[in-house]
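It is worth pausing here to work through a concrete case rather than discussing structure prediction in the abstract. The textbook approach is simple: state the sequence, then state the predicted structure, then interpret. We follow exactly that order.
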Amino acid sequence: MKIAIVADSNSGITQAEAKELGMTVIPTPAIINGKTFLEDINLTQEGFYEKLKDDSVSVSSSQPSSYDTAETWRKLLKENDELIYIPISSGLSETVHSAQHLAEDPEFAGKVFVIDDKRVSITQKCAALDALELAKQGKTGKEIADWLMETSMQSSIYITVDTLKYLKNGGRLTPAVAAIGTLLKIKPVLQIQGDKLDQYAKTRKMHEAKKIMLDAVKKDLETRFKPHYDAGKMKIFIAHTENYAEAEIFKKEAEEYLGLPIEYIDPLSLSVSVHIGPGALAIACAVSVR
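Step two, the predicted structure:
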């Protein structure tokens, strides 16, 4: 049985990387001054941040069109028996619900498994890589889908933003709170535990924020994820928004503190970046079959 593995670009998997891995990535649209661009197709990370930092430019994210998604599925199902689709968490986008509705069409029913695995960016990428591994092991579409859903909430992401500007622009902070936070040079530590981007802690210095994030991950490994951690099934990842040099430094600090290797460093997806802006650092952990 041949099974196609598909993610959206919120996973951070580039088109080139997807081709090398033998999977497919559906690009996420970004709306810039009313015009639609596709991530990693006609919009680069550099181009995105150039527009995002320009206050005269309106930038937002959207979800892939049902038409484009259906066309991708049709093409893949000509050469595969089943298809696993892993989009961004339903708590952060309506993409899952649109795809689930599409998968009910008789053309796709029983062949396409849409996974709401409550993940985004570096943890969503982990799920896609796990799906590839399970497919290589000969698992069926249902078996892969079941495993992804069973482990959907077994991940954490912690993010420190460099500026409150974009949280304010996205309506996650009132202008008054953002102004006070900026004046006090507050750097909030945010968390994604599946469904939403929420506040976890507040500090004023990046080195303090990094320690908070490392402590949070260590606590997760020793409590929530202890069985998987003890079994050697937890992976650690670093992410950033236009902040690669600092991410490399953070990688070394995290490996020394946690005693585990960092599997990869990736830019955060544009759908998250539009809300937190450049200069952010993040660390995540997730259970993995690999």
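Step three, interpretation. The chain is about 40% helix and 25% strand. The radius of gyration is 19 Å.
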